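Both lines are given unchanged directly below:

***
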Amino acid sequence: METIQLNISKQQFVGLIQAMPEKDRLEIFDSLRKSLFVSRFDRLLKSTRTDKLSMEDITREVEAVRQEQYEERKK
């Protein structure tokens, strides 16, 4: 496969993608979604990392939510 390099603006790039058939746009969308998921998930993990929560705290909160959901279903 031969590679070429083009200098185009973001608007031109978007215009090219919009001119593509839907199937091709969906393939590009899926590829972008997959590649962005990892970086977005990594940022989420880094932003929520803390040493202030113990496993006991997490378990207690999970059980409280489960109990609340159980009570709601009983109604």
